[in-house]
Amino acid sequence: MYKFYSIISTTLIVLIIVLGGIKFDSSVSEWLSSLSTFATLMVAVYALFQWKEQKQYDVQVEALSVLRVSADVVRNLRNPISSSGEINEKFFNAMNTELEQGKMSQNVIHEIYVFQSRMLRHEEDLKRVYQMKERLWATFGDNHYLTNSFETIAKRIKDINNAYHKYAIANQMKDNLDKDMVRTELANARKIMYGMSGDEISKELDDIISKADSLKKRKPTLF
Fold first, then answer.
1. How far, in Å, CA of 96 to CA of 102, rounded?
2. Residue 191 CA: distances (Å) to CA of 61, 164, 196
3. Which of 46, 84, 144, 146 is such that its CA lies 20 to 30 A from the CA of 212?
4. What's this model's pTM, rounded to 2 decimal places?
């Protein structure tokens, strides 16, 4: 309805401007010319609104596609099942150095480098998340569902990265810190690092995709 009232308001303003400059003793041809000008302007205004609607629709369609991929990326980053084959070659030397230093167990080092390899593998997908987040903000503003969804995805990726960082530090410093504190820190980190069916982040992703699917069925209209 807001868009409808915007068009009506624009129509009245243009009408006042066009007809306001015509004297009552003007010839019929002048009136017809002015009305023709008014009609042309209104067609241009309507076309502008339609163009804007189409651009928003195009961004929305692209965003929905990227959103689904982004949710899958978060799920993959949190996948508790991993293998040595996932570790990127560039990390092998660093991993061996960590093992030689003996500050962390082999399992912990394996977990960290699997995560880093997954982040590297999804590098382009992660870039698209942040790029799309900015495009949606520029197109729809702060309060649109898609803008908020990408804000959530970006935040969760940051949370997972921070959780791994805290996990590594807690494991390195565990001999010098209170055991209960270390145990709590590790448990909290692992809740974010790894996805379990029905946990907070998993539910959040499912909810985002469910709402996105319902949004996909509705094409924006001018009115």
1. 10
2. 33, 11, 8
3. 46
4. 0.73
